[in-house]
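Following the same procedure, backbone shapes were mapped to integers, as reproduced here:
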Amino acid sequence: MAKYQAPDFFDVDALLSEEERMVRDAVRDWVSERYLPLVEKAYRDGYFPKEVIGELGELGVLGGNLDYGDFPRLGAVAYGLVMQELERGDSGLRSFVSVQGALVMYPIWRFGSDEQKDEWLPKLYSGEAVGCFGLTEPDHGSDPGGMETTAVRDGDGFVLNGAKMWITNGTMSQVAVVWAKCEGEIHGFVVPTDTPGFSAPEQRGKHSLRASVTSELVLQDVKLPASAMLPKAKGLSGPLSCLNQARYGIAWGVVGAAMAVFDEVRGYGGQRTQFDKKLSQFQLYQAKLVEMLAEITKAQLMNLRLGRLKEAGTLTPIQVSMAKRNACHFALEIARAGRDMLGANGVSDEYQTMRHMCNLESVKTYEGTHDIHTLIIGREITGLDAFA
């Protein structure tokens, strides 16, 4: 594979600090040298290469954006650049890190007790433990408020019953953050996965995110002590705030996938000859490269501004929705165009473009579909709710 050349048409590098560039470059090199040699087989055979989990911990990217203890802390832009480089490798890799940090460590850090933090955050940060986030249910995807999973008080504790679907990392997790209704209110629970009655069968048969573990969570009379409840989370705002953290990372991550596609088809066009000319010499090929680069550049600038707003503490969930919606849409369009530009070779896993294209179909869907984010932004513009 040719050395990766990151597109940066507007010299975004000049707007980054030296530390942000160093963090990005360290992860970029790790992805190129360590992860990319693994992902083709992992995607083909349908598994997540678990041998990299500890290495991700050593890189400091598992929950690296949280301010806790002696953990090195990444700024919002540095964290976004990490997500970008991880998804350049594969959406499944970025998904693993996003779930671990934004959906498991973040709710424990923000809503948990000191005992919950001390028990789980160091293990999750290092990769010694893997976590998953149980919100989505079989019959309630875009409407998490309709969840049917229940937590019933039982003496000094709770009994959980229900099911969750499309849960990243579930089968290989040691802890799950599960959201359930208790006396009409939504609460979060920290559930060790070896608790009797908890199971996480892996979901197979995916055309997308094949190098990622996706699971169902089944809770059958799962008995938990009172200390398992996240004490500072009540209502739907708890899980939604977690999703907002994940969407922020996705907005950055999918740009990495788009950059990988652009780099591949740019190189391919300069090598492939048809009708006695390089593909890159044809007008249509150049026009498609221009469209790709324009959308990548716009997304890079949007994400950078998004990160600076997050660092200033003024970022709104609506702004995150716009960035996630925009970046996912155009990353997928870029991947579809790239697959077409590779011709028949585009369906071979010798090339990475179709893998990114298939993955992005899922990333566009999870943490809020394109249409749901459209309605969220539309409500902000008009002041009128079009959900119901």
Residues 257 and 356 are 6 Å apart (CA to CA). The mean pLDDT is 96. The first strand starts at residue 131 and ends at 134. The beta strands are 131-134, 150-154, 157-168, 175-182, 185-192, 198-199, 214-225, 273-274, 277-278.
